């Protein structure tokens, strides 16, 4: 037993980061060999019922408590700001140990898709030359991000053995590039009332990045409200987002009813019924159908916008970056390119610079995804997408980014409401060897047939400036003027 304990302790040293690297002005200490896989761990202690809190306790007992963070106590951007500035200082003083820690650093984030998206946004905003790759622990209800990269969709064990096993998987995981996407919404300032996004009782993490731009932001336009943000998994609009909004509102009002994943999923299905998602043709106003609500345009090649014809029965539209939606389902599937309607489509790669655009009529249509080759209505693959809302089509709609929904008021007297999605860049993520997400860089794929060069148009909704390139997820991330963190290597 003593030998096993010693072996376990030795293996944990491969992940351990000493305090002097994490805390500025801390006392110097004798350090062991550089760990093979130093990790920073960010946990949403409120996710997964009691699981988040239990996981926090276990990680802090196994690692240096200063390398494990509760995002509810300290925002990730603040923690990373402190650590990276300290690393820069140590490197400037010739500390080779700190340099190697930074080169080998990996991040673990445990929470729902919203928490994972928050971390990805913060790391993206840092603009590091070698940003740390991120592993996602499935601690939410949908867990689309972890599932897409092989980390599963069931909530994890929180005991010592389960955590040590997960750490070993992180050490052996492969790095992948995934696309991320910028979303911009602009509408004329209403004469009265507000058009700010209405979140379910409080602002979800992923909506921290979807906020109104500042007066000094180059995207700001006088007389208009301009919002921007970003996503990694999907953007959806319509009835699926409405059901999600009802679920999140109910969970905020009665958190005691949402203590485990099975109960959460059951409640979600019930809300799908009460919101009319299963009987949409009878209870859902036709004015809220996508075709009646907005005109949709897509761009696959630079400069070539085209109108996208949306069937009149489509009540929900999903713009997918990953092959994982609504708890791990793949709405796009693998198109049979021998069929004429699919000849220009490709499988869903996570780094090809394209979003898959899929439509759904109702919940019954969604159930088709459970069939072996089931899929939604494939509408397009696009490098950029633009929604132009019809004047007076509706006074609101529901939108959702990476599992986090909001109700979006629309001015009824304005015909200039525009939502545009464009390719933003790529981030590093950790994946298991057998994950379902595929890269155009995989030997089995044919990169020459996929992807699209980065496009910038001359209209007001596209800018190449620094503010456009940032998500805004790290609002408190302020670097002193005398340090250029973008060139940290």
Summarize this, please?
Monomer. The protein is built from 14 helices and 17 strands.
Number of domains: 2
**How does the helix and strand content classify structurally?**
alpha+beta
According to DSSP, the number of beta strands is: 17
Major pleated sheet: 7 strands, antiparallel
Which sequence of strands runs across the widest sheet?
A: 6-7-5-17-14-9-10
Percentage beta strand: 15-25%
Q: C-alpha Rg, in Å?
A: 23 Å
User: Which consecutive residue ranges, at least 5 long each, have pLDDT under 50?
Assistant: 1-7, 203-209, 447-453, 456-468, 475-489
Region (Disordered): 432-489
Subunit structure: Monomer.
Family: Belongs to the eukaryotic diacylglycerol kinase family.
Domain DAGKc: 34-187
Explain what the structure shows:
The protein is an alpha+beta fold and about 500 residues long. The protein is about 25% helix and about 20% strand. Helix 9 crosses helix 10 (about 260-275). Residues about 1-5, about 205-210, about 445-455, about 455-470 and about 475-489 have low confidence and may be disordered. It comes from Citrus clementina (Clementine).
């Amino acid at each position: 037993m003593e030998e096993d304990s010693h072996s376990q302790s030795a293996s944990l040293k491969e992940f351990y980061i000493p305090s002097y690297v994490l805390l500025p002005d801390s006392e110097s200490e004798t350090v062991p060999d550089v760990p093979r896989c130093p990790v920073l761990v960010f946990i949403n202690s409120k996710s997964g019922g009691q699981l988040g809190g239990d996981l926090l306790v276990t990680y802090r007992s196994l690692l240096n408590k200063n390398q494990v963070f509760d995002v509810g106590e300290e925002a990730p951007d603040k923690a990373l700001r402190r650590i990276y500035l300290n690393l820069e200082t140590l490197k400037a003083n010739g500390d080779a140990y700190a340099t190697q820690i930074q080169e080998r650093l990996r991040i673990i984030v445990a929470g729902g898709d919203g928490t994972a998206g928050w971390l990805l946004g913060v790391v993206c905003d840092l603009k590091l030359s070698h940003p740390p790759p991120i592993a996602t622990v499935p601690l939410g209800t949908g867990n689309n991000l972890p599932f897409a990269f092989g980390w599963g969709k069931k909530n994890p064990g929180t005991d010592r053995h389960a955590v040590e096993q997960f750490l070993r998987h992180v050490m052996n995981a492969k790095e992948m590039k995934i696309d991320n996407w910028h979303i911009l919404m602009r509408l004329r300032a209403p004469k009265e009332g507000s058009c700010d996004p209405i979140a379910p009782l409080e602002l979800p993490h992923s909506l921290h990045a979807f906020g109104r731009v500042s007066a000094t932001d180059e995207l700001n336009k006088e007389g208009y409200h301009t919002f921007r943000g970003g996503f990694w998994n999907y953007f959806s609009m319509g009835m699926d987002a409405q059901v999600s909004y009802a679920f999140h509102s109910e969970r905020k009002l009665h958190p005691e009813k949402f203590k485990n994943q099975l109960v959460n999923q059951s409640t979600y299905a019930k809300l799908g019924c009460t919101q009319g998602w299963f009987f949409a043709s009878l209870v859902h106003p036709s004015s809220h159908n996508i075709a009646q609500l907005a005109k949709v345009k897509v761009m696959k090649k630079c400069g070539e916008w085209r109108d996208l014809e949306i069937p009149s029965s489509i009540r929900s539209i999903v713009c997918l970056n990953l092959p994982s939606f609504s708890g791990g389902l793949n709405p796009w599937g693998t198109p049979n390119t021998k069929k004429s309607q699919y000849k220009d489509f490709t499988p869903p790669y996570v780094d090809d610079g394209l979003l898959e655009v899929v439509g759904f009529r109702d919940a019954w249509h969604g159930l088709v995804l459970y069939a072996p080759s089931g899929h939604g209505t494939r509408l397009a693959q696009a490098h950029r997408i633009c929604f132009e809302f019809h004047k007076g089509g509706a006074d609101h709609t529901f939108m959702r980014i990476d599992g986090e929904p909001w109700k979006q008021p629309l001015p009824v007297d304005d015909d200039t409401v525009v939502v545009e999605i464009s390719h933003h860049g790529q981030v590093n993520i950790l994946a298991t060897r057998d994950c379902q997400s595929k890269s155009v860089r995989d030997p089995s794929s044919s990169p020459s047939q996929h992807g699209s060069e980065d496009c910038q148009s001359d209209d007001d909704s596209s800018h190449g400036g620094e503010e456009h390139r940032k998500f805004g997820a790290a609002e408190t991330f302020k670097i002193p003027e005398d340090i250029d963190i973008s060139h940290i290597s």
